[in-house]
Amino acid sequence: MKAPNPDTLKSLKDFSRQTITFAIARAEGSDTAYIGCSDFKVYSADFAAAKFEPKELYAHESYVTGVALAGTTLVTGSYDGKLTWYDIEEGKPVRTHEAHAKWIRKVIASPDGKLVASIADDMTCKVWNTATGKLVHTLKGHKEKTPNDFTSMLYAVTFSADGALLATGDKVGHVVVWDVKTGKELGTCEAPVMYTWDKQQRNHSIGGIRSLAFSPDGKSLAVGGMGKVGNIDHLEGKARVEVFDWKTGKQTAEFPGDKFSGLVNRLAWAPDGSWLVAAGGAGEGFLCFYDPTNKKTLRQEKLMMHVHDFAISATGDLITSVGHNRITVHKLG
Fold first, then answer.
1. Mean pLDDT, rounded, for 290-303
2. Are 78 and 63 in contact (CB under 8 A)?
3. Beta strand pairing status for 154-159 and 135-139?
4. What residues contact residue 239 under an 8 Å CB cut-off, 6+ apart?
5. pLDDT band at residue 168 using 50, 70 and 90 as cut-offs
6. CA 211 to chain centre
7. Which of 16, 199, 288, 295 sits most deeply, having the most CB atoms within 10 A of its CB?
8. Structural domains in the chain, sorted by start
9. Among 76, 162, 174, CA closest to 118
10. Alpha helices (H) in the chain, listed in sequence order
11. pLDDT range class, residue 205, cuts 50, 70, 90
12. pLDDT above 90 covers what percent of the chain?
């Protein structure tokens, strides 16, 4: 199926919110989405409603930073280290696990919905059975400390389109690719430019790999973050994307950013692999489209908020972005 052209991108809807929305999962072919927010709450949102008023479903004990939808099961993760399973049809929580020792950064569902993966700052990726809530794998491939002996963080995780692979990425630019069935490490990639260590003024660091996405054929892995930073108190580094042949660990394309600053918090490929879309930001946000094969930037669109996450339709024609005090919907084609 041929993907829509990024040149056709247009704004469809724009909503103001009082909270920061960290994560979104949108039901395919539906106007309903589920969002996790800075007010500790999980909401359902109807984009076809005459008045956009997300409905509260339940709450965590801190920021909700991961939302995964698998059929009628919603799984959410929070700064409180807990994962909660919620039955959409029954309208009630099913179970809550003390899943991680530290902040859960992201929660995603496998393409077939049978598994859910969570990552946290305890530097583990945990794979769960969606139906039973049982732990399938605990994946440990990231160091707890940076080379400068400071606490590291595990920001990014993604499944391949066939669900056979899982990739995780951390603060110092280290990526691990895993075999989902066995839990074994298959390969690694390195993107050290996305990590800045300031030993002169702050004795502190910033950056890291914030997003990952496998190409539809599973051969390439896109990595998103931010370039080197002069003042680590600000997200002033250029938005950065690198593409790897993950089996060899070699970089095949690089987009160092020429317009927008800040972190690339979300990446996705077109269903036919013809383009790659990145979203993120600093004070303001962006949607940027790239052609990894020809190493070209196709389109760069400014958004009026720092984007934390987006949901993209299976056909690549609808992108719902969430972030600081706004939710936007864009249409392609």
1. 97
2. yes
3. unpaired
4. 224, 226, 227, 257, 260, 261, 262, 263, 264, 278, 280, 281, 286, 288
5. very high
6. 5
7. 288
8. 6-331 (2.130.10.10)
9. 76
10. none
11. low
12. 88
